[in-house]
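The pair is set out directly below:
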Amino acid sequence: MAAKLSVLTLVKNREGHLANLVRGLERAEVQPDELIVVDMGSDRPVVVQTTAFAANVIRLEGQALPLAAARNMAAARATGDHLLFLDVDCIPGRTLPGVMDAALAQRDGLICAEVRYLGPDDAEGDWTEADLLFAGMPHPVRPFPVEGMRMESNYGLFWSLAFGIRARTFESLGGFDEAFTGYGAEDTDFGFRTEQAGISLLFLGGACAFHQHHATYDPPLQHFEDIIRNAGIFYGRWMRWPMDGWLRAFSERGLVSWSEDRLEILRRPLASEIADTLVA
């Protein structure tokens, strides 16, 4: 019996982005057997409208972004042997589900798909994949092969935007560690635990996802408390700091005292400081 492919995504108040993700899956050469959506307390409960494949929406109440717990919940509900995790901002290219499914049949690894970044209006209206390919910009420090898979030795480059893994392997790793609550470091920890377990990190060519533009904060001061807490958990486990660019930015603003082995909050960011970091 052929392995089943489950696509998993998390959403909080990004209905338009989710609709584009679903549209991408509907246009795929190989459609998934199911889509699992975890709604992390959206203001309006999420509804997925598609007849192309089964869609299951799970509501997870709360005001925070429980990313680790939500990904684990999605995986627990999935029935597929192969899991494709997609950030809700990612529109899958038409070849991505099929290429990832075939890659997981070939290799028992942690497989990252290429993500190309779109501008503010690139996924508006009745877009085509040709439009997205023309507009999408590759990541500057994550080179992907044109086709096939290549081994990546730096597990710090794992990203959770678009990746595949066998369901049994995900379960053997214990999923994402729910000690990391809210935003930050849970994906880097997952990558490091994958390396510790001797599982290959692979970069997949021949398929990609397109990251839809959204307003962001640089640095993400709106997640200040989560980042500091999760950075401390990560350091206690791995004896190195994650998210060092953000921690450096916090230190330069006088928010934290940060050294090789110590991180301490000096003050919380003001609402005006958070607003000033917004990048439209």
Notes: Residues 49 and 55 are 8 Å apart (CA to CA). The mean pLDDT is 95. The chain is about 30% helix and 25% strand. The first strand starts at residue 5 and ends at 11.
